[in-house]
Q: What sequence folds into this?
C-alpha cells in the first residue's frame, strides 16, 4: 500500500518535471499533477491494453515504439478531462510520453530496485 502511494506521488512529480521541460505541456499545480497521475494510471490500466492489442501489427513493425504514440494519445485524452492540465498538440504529448517514460524508469530503478534472487 505504501509503495502504491509513493509511486503515485513520484508520478505526480514526474509530471511536474515534464511540464517544466516540455513547452506546450502544462500542469497548474501539484494537486492537479496528483489528479492527472491518478486518471492517467486508470486510463493506462483500462484503455491502454485494448489499444496495444488493436495496434499490435504496427507495434511489432516499429519494434514497440508505437507504444509512445499510444501513450501520447492517452495523455491528450486525459488532458481533455482534467482541468488545470493542458497539452497543446500531439508533438508535446509525444515528447512528454518519452520523458515520462524515462523519468518513471529512473525513479523505479532508484526507489524500487530489482532484488537479486
A:
Amino acid at each position: 500500500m505504501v509503495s502504491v502511494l509513493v509511486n503515485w506521488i513520484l508520478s505526480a512529480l514526474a509530471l511536474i518535471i515534464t511540464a517544466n521541460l516540455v513547452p506546450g505541456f502544462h500542469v497548474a499545480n501539484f494537486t492537479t499533477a496528483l489528479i492527472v497521475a491518478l486518471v492517467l494510471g486508470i486510463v493506462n490500466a483500462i484503455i491502454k491494453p485494448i489499444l496495444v492489442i488493436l495496434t499490435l501489427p504496427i507495434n511489432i513493425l516499429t519494434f514497440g515504439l508505437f507504444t509512445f504514440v499510444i501513450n501520447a494519445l492517452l495523455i491528450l485524452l486525459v488532458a481533455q478531462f482534467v482541468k488545470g492540465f493542458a497539452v497543446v498538440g500531439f508533438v508535446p504529448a509525444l515528447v512528454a510520453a518519452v520523458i515520462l517514460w524515462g523519468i518513471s524508469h529512473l525513479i523505479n530503478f532508484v526507489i524500487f530496485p530489482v532484488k537479486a534472487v
Notes: The first strand starts at residue 25 and ends at 27. The chain is about 75% helix and 5% strand. The longest helix spans residues 30-54. Residues 109 and 116 are 13 Å apart (CA to CA).
